[in-house]
Amino acid sequence: MEAEELGSVADAALRALQGAGDEDFLEFLAGVFVMHTTIEHFLDEVNHKLDSREYQGRQRRYYAMPYGERYIWGATAGMLKNLHFILTAKETAPA
């Protein structure tokens, strides 16, 4: 799917949600940032990082995938990491 098509899908979804009338949810969506990129960036392991920060006295680790000035991290980066694993895994024949 091309970036233009993804934009159209996102626009259509937002138009459908506007009819739902949930103003709190619409306010939340207004702050959501959508970016377009290529899958190649996320399939290149050079762009995969395992970062950590201290939180509540403990060191927490999480996936991160910097992209230009953006920093994709946490659950989003984890999902992209899993997608990378699925798309690049070698098929193994049953024993």
- Total strands: the figure is 3
Helical fraction equals: 40-55%
Mean pLDDT, to the nearest integer, reads 74
Oligomeric status of the shown chains? Answer: single chain
Number of domains: 2
Low-confidence stretches: 1-6
Strand content: 15-25%
Shape type:
extended
Structure description:
It is a single chain. It is extended, with a radius of gyration of 18 Å. It has a three-stranded antiparallel beta sheet with strand order 1-2-3. Helices cover 46% and strands 22% of the residues. The protein has 95 residues and is of the alpha+beta class. The protein starts with a helix and ends in a 7-residue tail after the last helix. 5% of the residues are buried. The chain has two domains: 1-36; 37-95, no CATH class. It contains four helices and three strands, in the order αααβββα.
